[in-house]
Amino acid sequence: MVSCTEFLESKWCTGPTACGHYGHRLKYHKYGGPHLHVNCEIASYSEPIYNNCRELTSGFLPKTYSTSCAALSHDTLKDNPVSDMLVDSFGRLHTYLRISLTERCNLRCQYCMPAEGVELTPGPRLLSQNEIVRLANLFVSSGVDKIRLTGGEPTIRKDIEEICLQLSNLKGLKTLAMTTNGITLSKKLSKLKECGLSALNISLDTLVPSKFEFMTRRKGHERVMESINTAIALGYNPVKVNCVVMRGFNDDEILDFIELTRERPINIRFIEFMPFDGNVWNVKKLVPYSEMLDRVVKEYPDLKRLQDHPTDTAKNFRIEGHCGWLKRSSSPWC
Question: Has keyword Metal-binding (predicted)?
Fold first, then answer.
């Protein structure tokens, strides 16, 4: 039997993408940088792990290991709101949980998914709505105060509104966020906000519709832009836009993306492309963070660096709007 602690320490995340999909080959992992990750497809890859976590989320049953939340009683959890399970070997406290709701996606981004697709987990092996909420409650009871829903594409789940509603009602949770490609978001966002969704990251790698269709192998650029506008109209501030920068594809749009932030509550997060086995791109597509910064400074010499927080995964800057860089390949943050 694999313990909850061993489950959390089992794998590292790889291959960042704008949609929050951290490599389709890793189905369970601990965290990259300051975020804990839980993947809802875990059951089909390790039944013992899945069964153990189901037991943990139903009453925090004590097990044979010592340094996990499972060994704590409900009274201990109340008296000690931050569990030692959330402290890593470097003494860092992790209060940010990412939950992958599904591996399915309605786009086929070339840097994320092979043209032939991937083998998907059978539906019966996915975590149910109740299991997701129970697992989230375990972490929130231990000190997690922010949860981000990712995928795949999280809005594909038919029960996404109910999941948001139940998670947002967890005592102690301060922020419920979502990373989405925005294809179907505009139609669902009003209801999702009513259900407690408080923060958004929307993936958009290009402002040119033809490039979008080439990269994603699907139409939908207008729908993503509509979702961004809807989010702003509904009061999300800021709306974070994730952009994976690739040489020869969209690196000529960096300044255009920054202009989106001039008068609108949009934060642009430029993500370094991460090559991994299975995508059709190579390391020559990488535009290092330092090169992006040089280009921006030439156009905006008054660029100001903002104060970083200890758990930030981006270096943050301000011009007239606010831009964030996610560092990966050339300058890892974890």
Answer: yes
| Residue 177: inside a domain | yes
Tens digit of each residue's pLDDT (9 = 90 or more) over 8-39: 333 333 334 444 443 333 233 333 333 455 54
Each residue's pLDDT tens digit, 216-272: 888 999 999 999 999 999 999 999 999 999 999 999 999 999 999 988 899 999 988
In a domain, 88, yes or no: yes
How many domains does one find in the chain? 1
Q: Is residue 331 part of a domain?
A: no
Name the β-bridge partners of 39.
100
Burial call 98-126: b when 16+ CB within 10 Å, e when fewer: bbbbbbbbebebbbbbeeeeeeebeeeeb
242 touches 182 (CB < 8 A): no
Three-class SS state of 4:
helix
